[in-house]
Design a protein that fits this description.
The complex is a heterodimer of chains A (about 120) and B (about 110).
Chain A (H helix, E strand, L loop, with lengths): L3 E4 L2 E4 L5 E7 L5 E7 L5 E9 L2 E4 L7 E2 L9 E3 L8 E8 L13 E2 L3 E5 L1
Parallel strand pairs in A: 2-11
Antiparallel strand pairs in A: 1-3, 3-8, 4-5, 4-9, 5-6, 7-8, 9-10, 9-11
Chain B lengths: L3 E2 L4 E5 L4 E3 L2 E2 L6 E7 L5 E7 L5 E3 L5 E5 L4 E6 L8 E8 L3 E3 L3 E6 L1
Parallel strand pairs in B: 2-12
Antiparallel strand pairs in B: 1-4, 3-9, 5-6, 5-10, 7-8, 8-9, 10-11, 10-12
The chains are: A mainly beta (about 120), B mainly beta (about 110).
């Protein structure tokens, strides 16, 4: 079992609310990621981090923001939620030093946070 | 252009029959290829990977995948499917970052 945790698992909120999705891992991984999984079930990278104080935007433009103050913690925040933000958000971490290097390349995923904005 | 493609949205097989989930890739150089599985209401789980070496890679839960460089494919296979294999399967490739395919829903009927 991977030691990466997401809370809440399910969240239903009203439009305009601020929400934070939590993600924590106990594996000491430097790299962490947020994926958005839409109703068609495709995965889209929205944010990633290569270490403390490092955050980058992914392929899919997102109104969310992230922070990486501690290695183990990578929260995602929506300042003002809208129905278009309704989706499943998956957090992941990995221990490889760079893409394509001779290491596992395996991502460890959390269980996901399913957000519904009314 | 998409780095990895899964041409089938859905695959339906009877329990006990062979299962194949198709994946093709388009990256320069030597590809690093992965398969992940997602069970309902769960995160993704790593199944197997190809980095180098034997073209036939064995992974978790009796799955294996065959790397075919000439056909740029990395199809996932299981000789005898189980109902519990019903899930969403993602192929992924490292192309300066990890890119996932659109996913294939596998349904194994009893």
């Amino acid at each position: 079992e991977a030691d990466i945790y997401q809370t809440p698992r399910y969240l239903v909120i009203g439009t305009g609310k601020k929400i934070t999705l939590e993600c924590s891992q106990t594996m000491g991984h430097d790299k962490m990621y947020w994926y958005q999984q839409d109703p068609g079930m495709e995965l889209h990278l929205i944010h990633y981090s290569y270490g403390v104080n490092s955050t980058e935007k992914g392929d899919l433009s997102s109104e969310s923001t992230v922070s990486r103050i501690r290695t183990e913690h990578f929260p995602l925040t929506l300042e003002s939620a809208r129905p278009s933000h309704t989706s499943q958000y998956l957090c992941a971490s990995s221990d490889h030093s760079e893409w394509g290097a001779a290491d596992t390349g395996e991502l460890f995923f959390g269980e996901g946070s399913r957000l519904t904005v009314l | 252009a998409q780095s990895v493609a899964q041409p089938e949205d859905q695959v339906n097989v009877a329990e006990g029959n062979p299962l194949t989930v198709k994946c093709t890739y388009s990256v320069s150089g030597n590809p690093y290829l992965f398969w992940y599985v997602q069970y309902p209401n769960r995160g993704l789980q790593f199944l197997l990977k190809y980095i180098t070496g034997d073209n036939l890679v064995k992974g978790s839960y009796g799955f294996e995948a065959e790397f075919n460089k000439s056909q740029t494919s990395f199809h996932l296979k299981k000789p005898s499917a189980l109902v519990s294999d019903s899930a969403l399967y993602f192929c992924a490739v490292i192309d300066y970052k990890l890119s996932f395919g659109a996913g294939t829903t596998v349904t194994v009927r009893a």
